[in-house]
Amino acid sequence: MRILVVGGGYVGMYTALHLQRKLKPELRRGEVEIVVISPDPYMTYQPFLPEAAAGSISPRHVVVPLRRVLDRCRVIVGEVTAVDHAKRTASFKTLATQEEGTGPLDLTYDEIVLAPGSISRTLPVPGLADYGIGFKTVEEAIGLRNHVIEQMDIASSTRDPAVRDAALTFVFVGGGYAGVEALGELEDMARYAARYYHNVKAEDMKWILVEASGRILPEVGEEMGKYTVRELRRRNIDVRLETRLDSCEDRVAVLSDGARFPTRTVVWTAGVKPNPLLAATDLPLTERGRLKCTAELTVDGAPHAWGAGDAAAVPDVTAEQPGTECAPNAQHAVRQAKVLGDNIAAAVRERPLQEYRHKYVGSVASLGLHKGVAHVYGRKLKGYPAWFMHRVYHLSRVPTVNRKSRVLAEWTLSGLFKREIVSLGSLEHPRAEFELAAGGRRPKES
Q1: What SS3 state is found at 444?
Q2: pTM for the full predicted model
């Protein structure tokens, strides 16, 4: 029996990890094969991206190598392009297929787990594709850190006031977890870095948060959301609620309230949408493009197909209001993966399935070093206690003892020594120096 897991994120990795433990006898006897197809050879623990961007955690400790963790699975680095569940076939492509020019390959399966995750939800904002920066991958997080420090270098060395002003203006669009935590950590890092510049002060920088709704961080509750707005504004961060980004053409952010900000940094964190792969399947989808799933995490009306995480609309059986779905967040994804692994193992052994049942306990968010907000089990925390809870919770959730130990060691060392504020922007163009020496051109500045 071949179990195909599509995606190597939270759900994909944790489900495969749980399956290889539950089905150890079957794997040893060669009765079951677990195949994981993922675009990247690692799982990114996204809650640590803001701290990686701020330099509190090394990039390599934010990711978990799939081949090391899933040592009893067959890991294929590639991208599934279509699924024909009626024929139990998935089409996928790899780097090798592109080199060979053979086109997508087909893989048959007996059970399939669809967990491709989500992608950034963008809007047709003029200039966004040219100048916008995302914040969903470790590459984007480190690239943004390098970019912010590079802008401070530009501001420090330019003689043009307009260039300086644009370099020191940072616009973040989206008041959810990603936007608020990225803004809070990077502002904290840049404020610290400014002390090492002779002509750039923390007060010279403009940090702007743009949110289309009337509140930020809805997951932590209205009261904590209002506290977060007050805390950010106390740090001279311009929080603009009920405001949209209308354009960022020619490096000018134009907002719906009429404000215009010349800027070289527009970070887009305004939500996510289901992976386009789901539309290339013959499985039932909701109006929002997510898999229709049951409480047992099977795809509704499609035997031998399973789903969880961002890609799946899973009914919340603990909610008082019928028809409520589980929120697409990491708290549910990790717990769903465990139930999903148990249920697939039960199906293989022809045993009853269990429902996914988890009452949402609350949320925590970091606003920078020693600053945070939390609403957990009805209790509201802010400042250092919330920040400490944020770190403890995510340290407990990051997979493998190896990863936990490395992250804890880095946090300990960062508490004893000063921050590193070096920009390694050349990492984005590693061949630039050699190309220039060989007679080529240096890449244009981003």
Answers
A1: coil
A2: 0.89
